[in-house]
Amino acid sequence: MAANPWQSTYAVQCEAVQLQDRLEKLNKALICFEKIPEDTRAVEGAECLNEFGLPFQ
Prior knowledge:
Radius of gyration: 17 Å
Helix content: over 70%
Number of strands: 0
Structural class: mainly alpha
């Protein structure tokens, strides 16, 4: 069963919204990360990712 054009359009819109949300979170995490002194970023940087719900691996 093939998707109709409305379903395809809706799926693309959902993906775009998710990508925009993730980009905003990444930008906020980057701003947070840049505020941390360089000598402690490796240790404290994960907090910036966790704060915005981004997985740290």
